[in-house]
Each structure stands twice: as C-alpha cells, then as structure tokens.
Amino acid sequence: MATVEIRDLDVIFGKNKAETLKLMDQGLSRSEIRKRNGDVVGVKGATISVESGEICVLMGLSGSGKSSLLRTVNGLNDIARGELWVEDGDRRVNVASCDEATLRHLRTHRVSMVFQKFALMPWLTVAENVAFGLEMQGMSRKEWTKQVEEKLELVGLFEWRNLKPNELSGGMQQRVGLARAFTMDTDILLMDEPFSALDPLIRSQLQDELITLQKRLNKTILFVSHDLDEALKIGTHIAIMESAQIVQAGAPEDIVLHPSNDYVKNFVAHTNPLKVLKGKSLMTPLDRLAEDPVSHQIDIGSAMCLVKNEQGKIVALKSHTATVPFTDWQCNGSMDDIQKGMAVMAPAEIGMREAMEIRYRTGLPVCLEQEGNCVGVLTDEDYYEALI
Ligand SMILES: Nc1ncnc2c1ncn2[C@@H]1O[C@H](COP(=O)(O)OP(=O)(O)OP(=O)(O)O)[C@@H](O)[C@H]1O
C-alpha cells in the first residue's frame, strides 16, 4: 500500500470548476481555459504513488503546478476531481472526500510541511518556534522541552535554542523549520522548495544533511524543486511537471537516460549526468566483448583483455605490460589505496563519477561485478557516452 497515492487529480483555482472540468475534458489548454472563464488549472490528471521511505521530488518550471500538487496532500488546496489517498495506520484516507476533523487529524499526526520562507515567528526563540505545533496541540513547555531539544540536537542547533530566528543565518533558520517538522513526528513530510532561498554552498550542505537524516528517520517525503540537480541528488523518484501535468515520473537515472519529451530533455541537458548515472547502465556488457577460451578482449586491436581462470571465471586484467589480478572495491569506499596499474572490480551499481575517479587513478578500465561475477567493463567510450 503506497503511503500517498494520487489518482487522476485535478486542482482548479477559480469560480467555475464544473465548467472548467468540462473544458479540460474537451481538450482545451490551460491558457484557453483561462481566457474563456478566468480559471487557472493548477493540476491536471496527476497520478503518482509515493511509497514509504521514498523521497519523491516534484520538479518543473515556475508555474508548472508543483506547489499546487504538494499542497493538496494536506488539504491546503481543494481537489476538483480525482482521489488522493494518505495511509493512516491500517486505514487509508481520501483527502478529496474526508471531513474537516479527519483532515485536522492528518495535519497533526500524519503530514507536516516545511516551507521555503522558513515561516518562523520572530518574537519566539528557536526552541519555541520548533515547539509551535506541539503547543497548538495543547502541550506545555515542560512536556515539550525534551522532545524539542532532541530535534534541535538532530539538526545541530541545540546550542542556539534560546536565540531569536533573526540571530541565525538563513541556513540555520531553515534547519529550525526542519526541526519543527520533525518534532511533529509525522511520517509524511511535504517540503516546498525548502532550500531554494539559500546560497549554493549552504544549500548543498542541507541537501546532504537531509539525505543523512532520512537514512535515520525513513520518512516519506514529497519535495518540490525547480532544480534538476537537486532532484537527482535527493530524489529516489522524480515527477516532472509541465503546464499542470506530470509529463514523466521515474527513478533519477531513467529520467536522465530516457527523457520523454523536449521539455525534460532541456532540463537534462543542463545537469551533470555523472552524478546520477550508474556503471551498469553504461558499461560494455561481457557478451559484447570478443571471447576466446582464455579471455574476453576489451578493445579490438589492443592487448587489453579480461583473463579467465580454468573454471572460466574472470580473475585478472591483462594490459600490454602486465597481467594484474583484480582488487575488489565497494561503493562509497575509500579511494586512498587505489593506485596506478591496479585492476579494480567494482559493483555494477557504482556511480559514474566514482568509476571515473578509479579510471583516473589506475589508468585502466574498471570492471563491474554482480553477485561476484564480472558482468562488464567501463571503457573510455562509455565515459564519453555518459558525458554527452
Ligand atoms: N491559491 C491560488 N489561487 C489562484 N491561482 C493559484 C493559486 N495557487 C497557485 N495558483 C496558480 O496555479 C498555477 C501553478 O502554480 P504553482 O504555485 O503550483 O506552480 P509551481 O510549479 O509551484 O511554481 P513556482 O516554482 O513558481 O512556485 C500558477 O498559474 C499559479 O498562479
């Protein structure tokens, strides 16, 4: 059961919803509808499932409908048509049709939101800002103190708890927003461009922190961004929106390798593919290498080949100077011991960036394995393909 499941969802801003739905069904575009009756189509026909523990990034240009879709999840926007199911213990709630009391329950126990503009109250201390939601639930300072301090510790702001927000930097203020969302202990987190007001370095740092925190907290996160690099970095799934519609949804690597239209291609063209592509997607598989009883030739015309032992298992890399047995390397492992002339066998899941670093350090092709068996090799052509 998906934690959030959105089906054929339409959001309309304006006074003529019934008419606008008809016009949408007749195939009128967003701008035609706007001209006809003044209504704005915020979201059109969105369908997407977000599983527990996923970070789903809604990505697209300004005005494409990302925030409109995000804000329907906790009922901040009315749903004109369609379904939006939120898992709640052993039941599911349809936000499109539930009553006010159920919506209030979802907002306090299931879904929290982090905004771009921090939304901190300047007259309250950092700790009081973090405790705001708990106080709204009727908790006293004595009751919330421990909980709030734990969350401030989590985001590295414990020592700053008694200061006012304006005494903190932008990045720190956004951490207060994060701590406030975590304090509500809801499983679902909605994040509306939370880092986009920050300068690039702090932004990148907070993205890293979010990824680290997520490993511990395992929330289900819907995250809005207009930056594909950010989406690729933090998203386990990405949904790309154009003109109120989801035009492509999938794993980051799918989006980069198979953009579905020119709009997505344009985003992809401005991103660094090495950050997201995996070795296995670009490697030259073993069955494309010429084979003889003792080896697989990597490059026709050169002496470079993969050497097999008597059992047919690939055990070494032969270059024109030497035959070198493989050294295993694990993803996220240290590169310190990797030296010139070393033959490295890495998991097929290796990121292209790491693979390229190994290639640079060893001067040799990187071989890839799955379940202990060599499945392919990354040649220089494979790196060029990734880059272009
Ligand atoms: N409350 C509202 N009332 C009227 N129109 C709205 C409202 N909220 C959003 N819209 C309109 O819906 C469309 C989609 O806006 P939305 O904020 O969802 O886009 P977005 O992709 O999040 O853009 P941005 O990146 O600029 O925040 C826009 O045309 C916007 O003007």
SSE arrangement:
Blueprint (H helix, E strand, L loop, with lengths): L3 E10 L3 H9 L4 H8 L2 E11 L4 E6 L5 H8 L7 E8 L2 E4 L5 H10 L1 E4 L11 H5 L1 H5 L4 H14 L15 H14 L4 E5 L7 H18 L2 E6 L2 H7 L2 E6 L2 E6 L1 H6 L4 H8 L9 H4 L1 E2 L4 E3 L2 E3 L7 E4 L5 E5 L4 E6 L14 E5 L4 H11 L3 E5 L2 E6 L1 H8 L1
Parallel strand pairs: 3-8, 3-9, 6-7, 7-8, 16-17, 17-18
Antiparallel strand pairs: 1-2, 1-4, 4-5, 9-10, 11-19, 12-13, 13-14, 14-15, 15-16, 18-19
Helix pairs in contact: 7-8
This protein binds adenosine-5'-triphosphate.
The site of adenosine-5'-triphosphate has 12 residues, from β2 and α3.
Mind explaining what this structure looks like?
A hairpin with a 2-residue loop joins β9 (237-242) and β10. This protein has 2 domains: 4-110 and 186-273, 3-Layer(aba) Sandwich (Rossmann fold); 279-387, CBS-domain. The strands form 3 sheets. The chain has a 9-stranded mixed sheet with strand order 11-19-18-17-16-15-14-13-12. Strands 6-7-8-3-9-10 form a 6-stranded mixed sheet, sandwiched between helices. It has a 4-stranded antiparallel sheet with strand order 2-1-4-5, sandwiched between helices. The longest helix has 18 residues, at 200-217. The chain starts with a strand and ends with a helix. It has helices at residues 17-25, 30-37, 66-73, 100-109, 126-130, 132-136, 141-154, 170-183, 200-217, 228-234, 252-257, 262-269, 279-282, 352-362, 380-387; strands spanning 4-13, 40-50, 55-60, 81-88, 91-94, 111-114, 188-192, 220-225, 237-242, 245-250, 284-285, 290-292, 295-297, 305-308, 314-318, 323-328, 343-347, 366-370, 373-378. By secondary structure, it is an alpha/beta fold. The protein binds adenosine-5'-triphosphate. Adenosine-5'-triphosphate is lined by residues 13, 40, 42, 60, 62-68, 226. Residues 28-268 form the ABC transporter domain.
